[in-house]
Design brief:
Layout: E1 4-11, E2 17-25, E3 28-30, E4 32-33, E5 40-44, E6 54-55, E7 57-58, E8 62-63, H1 69-89, E9 101-107, E10 114-116, E11 121-124, H2 137-151, H3 159-180, E12 187-188, E13 200-201, H4 223-228, H5 231-243, E14 245-247, E15 250-252, H6 257-271, H7 278-293, H8 298-309
Parallel strand pairs: 1-8, 5-9, 9-11
Antiparallel strand pairs: 1-2, 2-3, 3-7, 4-5, 5-6, 10-11, 12-13, 14-15
Helix pairs in contact: 1-2, 2-3, 3-5, 3-6, 5-6, 5-8, 6-7, 7-8
Bound molecules: [2(R,S)-2-sulfanylheptanoyl]-PHE-ALA (TI1), calcium ion (2 copies) and zinc ion.
Residues 177, 183-185, 190-191 line the site of one calcium ion.
Keywords: Calcium, Hydrolase, Metal-binding, Metalloprotease, Protease, Secreted, Signal, Zinc
Subcellular location: Secreted
Domain Peptidase M4 C-terminal: 153-312
């Protein structure tokens, strides 16, 4: 029996209809997308903590039950993220060599998070106060960007390099949301909450208690705050580079999302090292902008001003 590529019909977490690439094999349809790299595979942990769980399958190629929603979105959004990196930077999957992309949904019981564990993405169902975590494209983009980071700068997940790691995931999660162009914004995780409230904001990190200036960074020892809170400083710089604005008296001329993505992708893949500090991120972004647009370019000036505005020298 030869496997065959199929197109299934799915309904996502938010009741939105979408087609999913599947494979028909031995009388079952699997959430396996053979059209991208070496494939995109979506699994079911069945509310256990066992990974990856079982490859998602059914007998009719219709993924329309409520229980199917998180799998439909994890599968479909992983494809969008794959397309972003391929179309924008000619990067074939997170390793550049078409690595299979694996996601598991229904992880744990009322698990209110999502993560990349060096092998795959993992999504919880939320605890009833949020939607399942794969139901947001910026979250899926966030997690898969951790895989890109790991294969490139491999930023150590603590202190300033950890905050850079988190910021890269929020920034590219947002750029991917704009690429998909469905209710794009500079908030993170707004599609997870019933009241549309985000978890973080790149436009104004202080909206959720995160710092928007280096002088306001969290200096304690809790690594979770160090990486998820201090990312606000770099997120704000990225926002200013793209959209412009005057921040603590420093005026930045915006150069747009495309150029932001080009500069940060080049910094991430060519210049940042695993122990990079915020100051080294400034230098990496300036060097990347210089490579791409020229030493005295408006883009280089905007990058410098944005890091000035958030107090990173
Ligand atoms: C084992 C916990 C691992 C946390 C680290 C993962 S990569 C992470 O950062 N997850 C995101 C999920 C997310 C993304 C966008 C929007 C909402 C939630 C995250 O930000 N987690 C926060 C809630 C946290 O762990 O504090
Ligand atoms: Ca949005
Ligand atoms: Ca968003
Ligand atoms: Zn993260």
């Amino acid at each position: 029996m030869v496997d065959s590529n199929q197109i299934g019909f799915g309904i996502g977490v938010h009741g939105d209809k979408k087609q999913v690439n599947t494979v028909f094999s031995n009388s079952y349809y699997y959430l396996q997308d053979n059209t991208r790299g070496k494939g995109i595979y979506t699994y079911d942990a069945k509310n256990s903590n066992r990974l990856p769980g079982t490859l998602w399958r059914n007998a009719d190629n219709q993924f329309t039950a409520k229980y199917d929603g998180p799998a439909v979105d994890a599968h479909y959004y992983a494809g969008v993220v794959y397309d972003y990196y391929k179309n924008k930077f000619n990067r074939n999957s997170y390793d550049g060599a078409g690595a299979p992309i694996k996601s598991t949904v229904h992880y744990g019981k009322s698990y209110t998070n999502a993560f990349w564990n060096s092998y795959q993405m993992v999504y919880g169902d939320g605890d009833g106060s949020t939607y399942p975590f794969s139901g947001a494209l910026d979250v899926v983009g966030h997690e898969l960007t951790h895989a890109v980071t790991e294969k490139t700068a491999n930023l150590i997940y603590e202190n300033e390099s950890g905050a850079l790691n988190e910021a890269m995931s929020d920034i590219f999660g947002t750029l991917i949301e704009y690429y998909n162009n469905q209710n794009p914004d500079w908030e993170i995780g707004e599609d997870l909450s019933f009241n549309r409230q985000g978890f973080r904001s790149l436009a104004d990190p202080t909206k959720y208690g995160d710092p928007d200036h280096y002088s306001k960074r969290y200096r304690g020892s809790n690594q979770n705050y160090l990486v998820h809170t201090n990312s606000g400083i770099i997120n704000k710089a990225a926002y200013l580079i793209s959209e412009g604005g005057t921040h603590y008296g420093v005026t930045v001329n915006g150069i747009g999302k495309e150029k932001l993505g080009n500069i940060f992708y080049r910094a991430l893949t060519q210049y940042l090292t695993e122990s990079a500090t915020f100051s080294q991120m400034r230098a990496a972004a300036l060097q990347a902008a210089t490579d791409l647009y020229g030493a005295a370019s408006a883009e280089v000036i905007s990058v410098g001003k944005a890091f000035d505005a958030v107090g990173v020298n």
